[in-house]
Write a structure and sequence with these properties.
Layout: H1 2-22, E1 27-29, E2 34-38, E3 43-52, E4 62-65, E5 77-81, E6 92-101, E7 108-118, E8 121-131, E9 145-151, E10 156-158, E11 163-172, E12 178-188, E13 191-197, E14 201-203, E15 208-216, E16 229-238, E17 246-255, E18 262-264, E19 270-272, E20 275-276, E21 281-290, E22 296-305, E23 310-313, E24 317-319, E25 329-337, E26 345-355, E27 358-368, E28 385-387, E29 391-395, E30 399-407, E31 414-421, E32 427-429, E33 432-436, E34 441-450, E35 458-467, E36 470-482, H2 489-494, H3 498-520
Length: 521
């Protein structure tokens, strides 16, 4: 009897165990990976499909994630999950995930995993959210093009003025040949900063092609700020129908500054004029930008060519640090006159900027077109222009008149202009113009006002005279800038309004009368 009771008990326990084993729950997220690209301020809804692959119902769902949804400014991405209710065995339901992005959220990639939990059951799915501008004209369209970015890599550091080499590969997974073009856009905050594009290439169906091109980062600090996140958006599209076929990918980049770094702005640096004949004057227009975080003091240019025996040096100047809103880009003119004994051809000059013990050089070509015509030479007594005085002692805020005597050595009337150059850091002036008849001489007065914040040092500039777009001469001029003298008490009284002087006199007379009356008593 006892043995029979034990046997029944064992059968009862076994039955309960089998029942528990057969009544299992299994939560399965059917999506393997979720990836989405959104713009700042977008709101969208994703469907995440959950299936109950067990034998008991699933309910009371909770959703969590490990994604950092705040940027450095505490701008946020907000997740809202719908409740799928109860999911019976073998059934599946969509969970609606609403993603709401702040209008100022940083361009970046936000990724991690989402976990769905019901009781003791859970499953996870990777989620990647890319916040970037959508540059396709009608949004991302079609899936025939697969774009792969090979260079640059995410997180690469660049400097202002640096060239970003863009290397991409585009595969045509469609059934027709496609004329493909690739474009790149550098964005910061909400603004497009710079763009570049490849040439159009025909990509056969089932084939792929490489698209390589360059994008240059601007040097203007009003467009670029250091230590901020930037995104490079690259799109590939059907050049014959972007509205129907366009895809894009993104790369996050950083802009970093060195302590001491000055570069030439090659687009703004050249000879003017760039082609001359023997004996003619020209000038190298040299533009540099300080792309470092340190101000550069006592910088200067040199310009040389050994073949022509030319070696010139500019006056010294300061260049503000990159974050400055105004003076981190500097332009100076370095005038030269071509010798009369050289051959026609292209001559390469070494232009150099010297700063903080460093030197950065640039090759600058000048074309000498002809040396067959003998240029006109002037004796010391018949120079086309003369600077009557080339050195002035001035105070900050002072206005000085510079007399310049100009002679028209030609046989016809011409318009002459007089300009003060290389003085932007310490003075302001207005160019003067005059029309002179043949062999006529005239003194033209150039007004120069010294800035009140000018440094109290010896500054130099150039007086340049031009006619018919050609420089006919240039001469250095110097300003020894002294602190503005404060007026003495006596000078203040003499310069005071008449009413004040009369009132002051009346007060003095009354005071004297009172004094005499007091003494008489």
């Amino acid at each position: 009897m006892k043995a029979r009771s034990i046997t029944l008990l064992l059968f009862f326990i076994l039955a309960i165990s089998l029942s528990a084993m057969s009544a299992t729950a299994q939560l399965n997220i059917l999506d393997d990976n979720i990836s989405i690209m959104l713009e700042q301020g977008d709101t969208t809804t994703l469907d995440i499909k959950i299936k109950n692959e067990g034998t008991t119902a699933l309910s009371n769902f909770q959703f969590t994630h490990n994604i950092k949804l705040l940027d450095n400014d505490q701008d946020e991405i907000i997740f809202t999950f719908s409740d799928p209710g109860t999911i019976d065995p073998g059934a599946s339901e969509d969970v609606h995930l609403t993603i709401d992005t702040d209008s100022l959220i940083d361009f970046n990639t936000y990724k991690g995993t989402i976990t769905a939990t019901s009781g003791s059951e859970s499953d996870t799915v990777p989620l990647t959210i890319t916040i970037a501008p959508i540059t396709c004209d009608s949004g991302i369209q079609g899936d025939d093009l697969v774009l792969t970015i090979e260079k640059p890599d995410t997180g690469d550091d660049f400097k202002p003025g640096e060239i970003i080499t863009i290397k991409t590969n585009v595969k045509n997974e469609g059934t027709q040949d496609i004329d493909v073009k690739v474009e790149a856009f550098l964005f910061g905050d909400q603004d497009e900063i710079k763009g570049a594009s490849s040439r159009v290439m025909n990509v056969d169906n089932g084939e792929k092609e490489d698209f390589d091109f360059d994008l240059t980062i601007p040097i203007d600090s009003r467009e670029i700020e250091s230590d901020k996140n930037y995104v490079l958006v690259i799109k590939a599209f059907d050049d014959d129908g972007e509205d129907n076929l366009c895809t894009q990918e993104t790369v996050s980049t950083d802009i970093k500054l060195d302590s001491n770094d000055v570069i030439f702005d090659e687009e703004e640096t050249s000879f003017s004029p760039s082609a001359v004949t023997c004996g003619e004057p020209t000038a190298a227009v040299l533009t540099v930008a300080n792309i470092g975080d340190e101000e550069q003091e006592d910088a200067y240019f040199t310009l040389s060519n050994k073949q022509l025996g030319i070696s010139q040096r500019s006056s010294m100047f300061d260049i503000d640090d990159f974050e400055s809103d105004e003076n981190h880009i500097i332009t100076r003119r370095v005038p030269i006159i071509i010798p009369t004994t050289v051959k026609a051809g292209t001559y390469n000059f070494d232009a150099a900027i010297h700063y903080a013990g460093k030197t950065r050089t640039l090759n600058l070509p000048l074309i000498i077109t002809s040396c067959t015509n003998t240029p006109t030479f002037f004796t010391a007594e018949e120079q086309p222009f003369k600077l009557q005085q080339n050195s002035y002692t001035v105070t900050t805020g002072e206005t000085v008149i510079i007399p310049v005597t100009v002679t028209n050595m030609g046989a016809t009337a011409n318009i002459f202009s007089i300009t003060l150059t290389n003085a932007e850091d310490y003075a302001q002036s207005i160019d003067q113009m005059a029309t002179l008849g043949p062999q006529q001489t005239q003194t033209i007065f150039l007004t120069v006002t010294i800035n009140r914040d000018a440094l109290h040092i010896r500054n130099s500039g150039n007086i340049v005279v031009q006619t018919q777009g050609m420089v006919i001469g240039s001469e250095d001029i110097y300003f020894d800038i002294q602190p503005e003298e404060k007026a003495s008490f006596f000078d203040s009284i003499l310069n005071a309004p008449l009413w004040f002087i009369i009132a002051l006199g009346a007060v003095i007379i009354l005071a004297l009368v009172a004094l005499v009356w007091a003494l008489a008593r």
